[in-house]
Amino acid sequence: MARSRSRYAPDQGLTVRMVTTMFLIGLLYVVLVGVLLAVLRGAWPIILIAVGALFVAQFWFSDRIAAFGMGAREVSPEQAPELHGVVDRICALADLRKPRVAIADSDVPNAFATGRNERSALVCVTTGLLRRLEPEELEGVLAHEMSHVAHRDVFVMTIASFLGVLAGLITRMALWSGLTRGGNRNDPVGVALLLIPLVSAAVYTIGFLLTRLLSRYRELSADRAAALLTGRPSALASALTKVSGQMSRIPTRDLRQAEPYNAFFFVPAFSSKESLGRLLSSHPTLQQRLDQLSRISAQLSR
After folding, report:
1. Which residues contact 17 (CB under 8 A, 6 or more apart)?
2. Model pTM score
3. Residue 62 in contact with residue 200, Cβ under 8 Å?
4. Is 151 annotated as a binding residue?
5. What is the crossing angle of helices 81-94 and 188-230, to 10°?
6. By CB distance 3.0 to 4.6 Å, which of 3, 43, 221, 257 could disulfide with 177?
7. What is the pLDDT of residues 4-42, one digit of tens each?
8. N- to C-terminal Cα distance for the chain?
9. Calpha distance 235→246 (Å, rounded)
10. Is 219 marked as binding a ligand?
11. Alpha-carbon distance 200 to 32, whole Å?
């Protein structure tokens, strides 16, 4: 949970969705591991040790792994005084612990936040974003990203996504272990081994859809919290419009490289207008986000 003294607007809907998503994915995960342990009895020490090691590694190093993968380079106030100045203002407004500040050398205009709590939080912007946004627009984007830290949803998303991926890894490892023990299709164990990939696929698919639902809601929540904190929803709307419009000018190769990190980004590298694409998207549509900011602006003006 966010620290009680943070001035970011609380969002009970986000809290309920995070708890529900983690519970359901955790339940799926426990069922999958239980099936593997029941079928591959001789491999249970390997399964438990591998699961525990991977989960601990993800819990403690998820922020570093994500930052490294996206090319984030931590910068000091002397190296990026303007950027640090914006972060300092947001921290003062929100009464929030200052996160580490980083820059990623990429022309893809974007920003993201990582960290399991305020102490380990890192907020990063790309050089492409810094070149394209005005100061008030940058403040809106960073307020959006830092709300993810305050609400702890960036941590929940990291763990939730990890559990789905881990389901597939465990299944492949357990299947390989079972096959090397001489399992065959003529005995019950051999038949069970053939069913494990189906169970894994179901767990992964349900987990994927749950995290996508949570991801879309958390982006709307972050937009709302940032707009209320800064009091300038129009600046955030301008940043959204500008960044989304600039994405079409970025080389496809660069967008493909950034696509695996869409769930963490301010704006996805790729977005779909198809119904199925929107269902699988990590972000709500641009129009949904702009409509919400327009309503907030009208409320604030009254």
Report:
1. 213, 214, 217, 218
2. 0.82
3. no
4. no
5. 90
6. 43
7. 467 888 888 888 988 888 888 778 777 777 777 777 666
8. 31
9. 16
10. yes
11. 7
Residue 56: pLDDT band (50, 70, 90) is confident
Q: Do 165 and 29 form a contact (C-beta atoms < 8 A)?
A: no
Q: Report the distance separating Cα 262 and Cα 186, nearest Å.
A: 44
Sheet holding 111-114, edge to edge: 72-74, 100-104, 122-126, 111-114
> 256: which DSSP letter?
H
Provide the token pair at 2: 């966010």
DSSP 123: E
Per the structure block, which two tokens stand in for 276? 């199925």
Read out DSSP for 50-105? HHHHHHHHHHHHHHHHHHHHTTEEE--TTT-HHHHHHHHHHHHHHT-PPPEEEEE-
Q: How many residues does the chain have?
A: 302
Matching residue, tokens 């065959």:
184
**Which of the residues are catalytic?**
145
84 is known to lie in a ligand binding site: no
**pLDDT confidence of residue 4:** 47
CA-wise closest residue to 83 among 100, 71, 63, 96: 100
**Assigned token pair, 235:** 């600046």
Q: Residue 10 carries which side chain, given as an amino acid letter? A: P
**Six-digit token string for 292:** 């919400």
The pLDDT score that the predictor gives to residue 144 is 96
In sequence order, which residues have a C-beta less than 8 Å from that of residue 153 and are 6 or more positions away?
Answer: 14, 18, 214, 218, 221, 222
Residue (of 96, 126, 101, 133) closest to 114 by Cα position: 101
Task: Give, as one character, the DSSP assignment of residue 9.
Answer: P
